[in-house]
Amino acid sequence: MFVFKALSKLESKQRASVTMKRVGTFTYIRIFLFSIMTGLVLFILVSIKSTSVQTNRLTVEEEWPQTTTESMEDSLVTATKKFHYPTNPPSAPKRPDDQPSRKNAFRQPEENVTQKPEKIKLGYSYPEWYLRSCQRSITYHTKDEFVGDRPFFPPCAAQTTGNRKGFYPMIEPKRYLPNSKNPCWIDKPGDVRTLRCIPYFYVAGVAKCGTSDLFRRIRLHPEVMKGTMKEYHWWDRTRFGFTDEEEEVTFRQYTMQVTGDNGLESVLKDLRTNGSSRRLFGDGSPSYVRDLDGWPQIDGNQGCLEPRVTIGQQIRHLYPDAKIIIILRHPTPRLYSRFLSRIPRTPDFKDATSKSFHEYVVRAVRLYRECFDRWSLRHCAYNGTLYAEAVTRLMEGMYPVFMADWLRIFPRQQMHIIRYEDYAKDLEGEITKVFKFLDLAPLSAREMAPIIERVKVNVGDMYEKIGPCCQRLQPILDEFYQPFMTKLAEILYDERFLWKDIQLP
Fold first, then answer.
1. Do 147 and 409 contact (CB within 8 A), yes or no?
2. End-to-end CA distance of the chain, in Å?
3. 288, 291, 297, 298 alpha-carbon torsion, rounded to 10°
4. Helix H or strand E encompassing 283
5. Which of 99, 119, 205, 385 qualifies as a cystine partner to 289, CB 3.0-4.6 A?
6. Is the pLDDT of residue 13 over 80?
7. Where are the alpha helices (DSSP H) in 64-136?
8. Residue 148 burial class via C-beta count within 10 angstroms: exposed 0-12, middle 13-18, buried 19 and up
9. Cis omega before residue 53 (within 30°)?
10. For residue 5, what are the CA distances in angstroms to 8, 340, 417?
C-alpha cells in the first residue's frame, strides 16, 4: 500500500513536471510570436512615416515655384519697405517654340533633345589628316550623345593637382524666383537677405565676329540691363585668378558685376510695383565658346588631355535655361581682323605688316598640322600651350570642334547662331531675331531706330594702315579651314556656313 501511494505521488509529480514544461514551451512560443508581430508593426509604421516625409518633401520641391513666400523686412539689399514675393511669374508672349519648364531640366537633359533634321549631303571628301585626328579623340564614338551638364566621357586615369587651390566644382542651382524672368534668388549670408542674379543670356563668341557690337545693341532694349561691363570672363579666367592682380573673383563678386547697383534696383522696383520682373542681364565674353584657359582647372578634368567638362556644362548646371548666342564669321577674314586688333597691344606684333602676318600664319598652320598628326583634333584645338606658341589665333576658326561640344550641352532651341556676314548685311533683321530669341518685348519702328542707327563699335583703322591680307595666303588658309567649314555646315544642317557666297578681298 505504501509502495502504491509512493508510485502514485511520483506519477503525479511527473505529470505536473510535464505540464509545466508544456506551459513553459507555449509561453516562449507566444512571447516569440508576439515579438515578431510587434517588430513587423513597428517596421510598417516607420516605413509609412518615411514615405510620407519623402512624399511631402517632393511635393514641396515640386510646388515651390507656385507657393507664396512670406514678406521680407527692409534688410533686402537697400530696400526700406516690406517686400512680398508675388505668386505669379511674369507673363510672356506665347509662341509655338516656347521652352519646356526649367524643373529638373539639368537632371534629365535627354527630354530636351529635339528631332534633328535630315543630314545634308555636301559631297565633300575630308582629308586623311582630318579624319585620323578626329578619330583619336575619346569623344569620337559618343560625338552625337546629348550630355547636358554631365561629363563627355568617363574619368581620366591620370591624376593632377590643378591650380594652387585645386579644381573648381559645379555651382549648384539656386532657388530662382518664379516671378523674375532673369535667374535671381535670395541669398542669405547670416541674417542679411540679398537679391542676387546671374546672366540670363551669354554672347559666348566668337571674337572679331561682331560680338561687341551685338551685345551693346541688345543692351539698348529697355528690358535688358547694362551691368558693369560687357566681358566679365568669370567662367574662363577671373575666378581662377587669371587677372593682372592674380586675385580670384568670387561667385558673389561676379553676381554683383553682372547686375550693378542700378540693374538690381530696377528688378527690385519691378517686383515691388508689378509683382514680377522681365528685366534681363547678360554676359558678353566671346572666349567662352572656345574655353582654353579654364577647362584644365575644372573639377572632372583631372589628368585629361582634352576637356571632359567645359564651362558650358558648368553654366548649364547652374541655370539650365540659359540662352546662348554665338556669331560665326568666315574664318579667313576673321583671323586677319584678329591679327589687326592685337597689333597695338601685342609686343610680338610691333611694326607688323601683312607680310609678317603671312609668316605667322604659315608657322601656325605647320604647328597645328604637326599636332594633328600625333594627337586628336579636339586635344589640339583646346591646347592652351599650342595656342600661345602659334601666336596667331588660328584655332579660333576651328568652329565645329567647339560648336559640337556646345550642341551636346544645350538644346538647339536654347542656342541662337548668327552668321556675321548676314548680321552686317541685314542688321535690323538679325537684331529682331535676337530679341525674339531672348523673348524680349517687340519694339516699334521708332523704338528700334536708335538701336539700328547706333554707330558700329570696334571698327579699327589698322586695316587702312596695314593693308589687305596678301593673296598668297588665302589658298593656304582655305585648304586648312575647308574641312572645318564643311563639318560646321553638317552639324548645323545649314550650307550657309560653307560661306560660298562670300567673295574674299
1. yes
2. 141
3. 70
4. strand 282-283
5. 205
6. no
7. 128-135
8. buried
9. no
10. 5, 129, 113
CA–CA dist 236, 297 (Å, integer): 9
DSSP state of 195: E
Taking alpha carbons only, the member of 418, 428, 467 closest to residue 449 is: 428
Q: Residue 98 and residue 92: Cα distance in Å, rounded? A: 10
Please tell me the distance from the alpha carbon of residue 69 to that of residue 21, in angstroms, as a whole number.
68
Order of strands, sheet of 323-328, starting from the edge strand that comes earlier in the sequence: 282-283, 201-205, 323-328, 415-419
Please give the grid coordinates belonging to residue 140.
569620337
Interhelix angle 354-374/331-342, rounded to 10 degrees, is 120
Q: Please, what is the Cα angle at 343 between 341 and 344, to 5 degrees?
A: 95
Res. 75 pLDDT band, cuts 50 70 90: very low
DSSP tag of 298: B
If you average pLDDT over residues 388-405, what whole number do you get?
96
* 197: nearest Cα among 185, 181, 179, 180: 185
Show the cell assigned to 349: 606684333
Say which residue the cell 586675385 belongs to: 247
pTM, entire model: 0.78
Mean of pLDDT values over 148-157: 94
CA distances from 264 to 233, 376, 436 (A): 20, 45, 24
C-alpha cell at 179: 516671378
- Report CA Rg, the chain: 33
- Rounded Cα distance between 378 and 346, Å, is 27
Cβ contact 408:112 at 8 Å? no
Q: What are residue 417's phi and psi, to 5 degrees?
A: -110, 125
> What phi and psi, each to the nearest 5 degrees, are found at residue 501?
-85, 0
Residue 211, amino acid:
T
84: left (phi over 0), alpha (psi -120 to 50) or beta: beta
pLDDT at 231: 94
User: How is residue 98 annotated by DSSP?
Assistant: P
Cell numbers 531675331 correspond to what residue?
433
How far apart are the C-alpha atoms of 270 and 282, rounded to whole Å? Answer: 18
What's the rounded mean pLDDT across residues 457-461? 63
How would residue 343 be classed by pLDDT, with cut points 50, 70 and 90? confident
Between 31 and 291, residue with greater pLDDT: 291
The grid coordinates listed for 400 are 565645329
Give the Cα-Cα-Cα angle 360, 362, 364 (nearest 5 degrees). Answer: 65
Angle at 314 between CA 248 and CA 290, to 5 degrees: 80
Tell me the fold of 128-148+167-498.
Answer: Rossmann fold (3.40.50)
Cα separation, 477 vs 469, whole angstroms: 11
Q: Which residues of 197-220 are buried (b: 16+ CB within 10 A; e: fewer)?
A: bbbbbbbbbbbbbbbbbbbbbbbb
The amino acid that residue 51 corresponds to is T
At 45, which amino acid appears?
Answer: L
